[in-house]
Amino acid sequence: MEEPVIDPHKYDAWNNLALNLALVCWAVGLLVILGYFVKLSTTGGSKNKYDFINRYEINLLWIASIILIVGGTFFVNANVTELTTLWIFVRVFTTTMAGFFIGVIIKNLLKFYYPFFIERRLKVLRYKPRISPKTGKPMKLLSEEEEDAHMDEGMIEEENVFSVDYDVWLDEESGYKQIEKYAGHLHAIQCPECNYQTFKVTREEVIKAPSSIEEGELMKHYVCSYCGYKARKTVTLKVSTKMDETSAPATA
Ligand SMILES: [Zn+2]
Description:
This protein is α+β, with helices and mostly antiparallel strands. It has helices spanning 12-42, 46-75, 85-127, 144-147, 153-161, and strands at 140-141, 164-170, 177-183, 199-208, 216-224, 230-237. The chain has five helices and six strands. It binds zinc ion (ZN).
């Protein structure tokens, strides 16, 4: 009987290729993350940073994670010494399953835990005092009651009807103002049931439209994307006021 000869270098071509592919994937994945943070740090203004993080951070980290995982699947197959059809099948299967499993874990971490970390940073950015370009001094963030006098009717209406928040920053010395828009549909809040940062407005309906003498009523529907908890909240819609009125705005 002839002894089967095992040539340890038989699959060198594949092993080298797999290793190189792994390194390329890891390099690309890390570049995506690095590129994101470089772009973020060169983005000027707290509001722009806020929008940038809110819009891209989780998605980009997810994309980078997938690329890094794919790199990992090549890496664990870069030491092949045996390559029969059965082996290929087993390796492809187990590697895919492992990659999928790690992907699911990372996806869940990004979806349910990472938002806490993002939320803290977003809060800091939203309330960080804005500097007036006129005087170079910090501006004042107006309260809900104060800000109405500085917003046009469309904005007040929008704040009333949609889950939109306007922040008005005022430079009291020069009268310069800066108005920033924050959309509730894009931004999840903490769920009262499971406490994850996954509670979002999904629908809004006007129960009663406000008139110039009577307040209206709006129903906001919230759903938690983690535990499925649903809640409704009624919000009072302010009496429509004219912009140039100097009298105190109607209280909500
Ligand atoms: Zn929940």
